[in-house]
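Ligand: fe (ii) ion. Inputs:
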Amino acid sequence: MWQYFMPTKILFSQKVIEKNKEIFKKFGKKTLIITGKTSSRINGSLRDVEDALRSLSIEYYIYDKIDENPTFEHIRQAVKECRIHDFDFVIGVGGGSPLDSAKAIAVLLKNKSLSVEDLYDATKYDSSLPIIAIPTTSGTGSEVTQYSVLTDDTGFKRGFAHDVIFPIIALIDPLYTVSMSVSLTRSTGLDALCHAVEGFLSKRSTPISDLYAVEAMKMIKENLPRVLQNQNDLEARTAMSFASCLAGMVISQTSTTLAHVLGYPLSTFKGIRHGDATAAFLDAVVQGAQSEVPQKVNVVKEIFGDIRDFITASGLQIKLRIDDEELEGWVKRALTAKHMQWTRGSFDESSIKKLYERMRSN
Ligand SMILES: [Fe+2]
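Predicted complex:
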């Protein structure tokens, strides 16, 4: 038995906002734009949204204080500030952090009695303000998922899932990704790679998610080196935006697995970008799946050869000082993470510890 549900309408094109601006009209007269401090201004996406809204006489308020790895406290602050207005819909503009924040904020503005913690109990709500997602990186896939990952009050990343936070519309314009730095291009590209490979090898994979995953892997193999070589290669940028969206649709069905679980603490406690932190463990996902689904592992190998070599060739190298105590905490946390149940292979305390030890410099 398998099923497929991904209700987001995707519009994909250069100048996608300009060409489709009428689409905002049906969601109401007043909107909240959630974005980060600078990138949406540099890549032109915020200006395009503002131009479209102004031309339609839609009132808007910009909340642009979203940092990387948004915390519960950030969300509380944002909701407090934005609650004084009455919004009809929410537009998230940026990478994974603004998009995931937009999802949380959209639910909390619609359901005024909920706290951030309540987002993690799906039975407590069944509605959200409509969400329009405009990704400006190519990696997160958040524009087509029902997930939002936030950092809780103890510093750990925790994702929540709910069908009501699937964006109603994803407006994808590869032109916005051209201004990404080499390091952000690599990190986001590796994030998309992890989504495709983890999803493909997940115990929750389906015939449809596998089709998307294989296509996404092929596109990333071909085009990630190209965009790292030449950031202005628009053909390759377009392919990466498409691959990222496909890989997002994969995890909307399969969820992520071990590499995401192990990567999270590196981002919140060591400041390593999400895609880099996650890709550092992707070879373990492939190895873990070897005995259970050897034919699928062969597909991955046929595309990438040794996935570790492909990742290293992108320039990823992580060396960190990790205290014994924090290492123990990360391992303990990983062992109880929900996503481990969909990871193939057997990972215990000592094998997870070894994976972290590989990047230890002390
Ligand atoms: Fe990710």
